Structure formats: structure tokens, C-alpha cells
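To: structure subgroup
Subject: Chain for Friday's discussion

All,

I'm putting the inputs and outputs inline so they're searchable in the archive.
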Amino acid sequence: MKRILIQLDTDDLPSSFDRVVAVDSGVDELFSYGGVTADNVESLVHGAMFTRGPQDLKHTAIFVGGSDVTAGEALFEKVQQTFFGPVRVSVMMDSNGSNTTAAAAVLCAQQHLDVTGAVCLVLGGTGPVGLRAAQILADLGAEVRLASRLLPRAEQACASISEQVPGAKITPVATSETAELQSACAGAQLIIAAGAAGVQFLSAEEREALETLKVAIDLNAVPPVGLEGIDMMDKATEKAGVVCYGAIGVGGLKMKIHKSAVARLFESNDQVLDTAAIYQIGKALQ
């Protein structure tokens, strides 16, 4: 029986990136829908649920994507609410590549640093990737500093993570002022820069002055990068005693995780691949 992946994209035009990865992951048939919202998705989910017998439902799965992560989360939740009992299919959410990229970034860091108890700073921590990287780190027992230009936004993000990770050691920090940024960086062993394109957080001189820093990861491939001096191609490259990764250096593992997660969807009809589940898939690849 053919493996069918139903791509539900919140953008008007379904992501060509996600379509290519789906094909490269071994999907037999790909049904792509754009402009999908929590309000209009029910009939699409019913179509996935009621067209095959219970023993064959594992051959159909749903992928939630799009550039708007908030809309993707609402869609992901609505899809799950539409299922009932055993009549369901597996579903994965990776809007804007947020879950797979965050998982890859943390896994790269773990190759060089035991993050349990480590002081980890996530710059751009309220963005889609930064938020999820902070969540994964908190779940691993790190002391996370989640940074945003505006403290209330950082506080809101930390509260959200604390709901998902009981006992999380996570602190909101503001970085709009130079003194605030310096304070946030003080004592950090890992820095993950996950800000918007064109936002530079630290100059090379400022980064090299951080005595405790062990690993630096910049997930922005658009110049200027978030951490000056880290090239997008860097992969476990040592610079001034710090192991550095750029966006493409992390991207290879991100792609492996993405493909493995899509393949996992077809192992049973009850997979729910969210941030934590996708991280575990990546961990198994190490």
C-alpha cells in the first residue's frame, strides 16, 4: 500500500522545501494544500481518517508546515482534536523548520558540551527556533537564559516553556542595551543565536572576550550573521578556543532529522511528532 503524506501549509503556496524533503524521505504520494487554517482543516483530516481501514491507517500521515509558526501550532492542535479513539493518523509539525532546526542545534552543542547544568544563552529566544531550542535545553536540565530585546516577551516565552517543562531552570533576559547583553553573556558556556535575518548580536571581539564560552552556534545564514566571525559553513570549527557552528554546519543534521521524522510517521498511526519527539528522533541518529 502506498505511503501518503498530506502536507497542510498555512501559507497560500505550500512550501517547496518541505515537498522536496518529503519526496526524498520516501513518500509515495504527496498531497499538498495551502491556506489551511484551524477553521477549514477538519474535512481534510476526515479524508485522511476515513479512507482506509484501521489496519492501513499507518500508511497515511499529516505534515503541518508554513512560515507562521503560531498558525502552525494552532493547526497542529486542531488536527489532533479532530481524531477520535483509534481512528487517526500520525502527524508532525515543523512550521518554518522550527523543530528540526532547534533539535539539530542542541544536538550539535551536545557533541562538545554536557548541557545538563550548563549555562546556556539563547539569543533571539522568542523566535520559532530559539523558543524550541530553549525548551529542549531546559528539558535536558540546562540553566537557560532566554533573551529578547523586550523583557516582557522573554518573560512570556519562559512562562510557556515552564508549562511544558516542569521545574525548568529558565530565566528571561533583555538584550536591547549593551550592558544587558553583556550581563546575559556573562558565564555562558553555550550561546545559540537564533535571531531574525540581518540581526547581529555580538561582534567577533565581544564573542572572543567571553572566557567561559565553549560552544557558539549561529543559525542565521543571511549576512550579517548573528555572531560575527562565524561562517555559515562552520561545522565544529574551533575559533579562539570555542567550537563554532554556522547555519549550514547545523543544516546537514537538520535535514537528516527532518527525513527521519517523516519516515517515522509511517511506523504506526499514532505518532505525534512535536518538539520533544523530534529531538528524540535526532538523538537516535547520533
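Points worth raising on Friday:
The chain has two domains: 4-93, 99-250.
The longest helix spans residues 247-264.

D.
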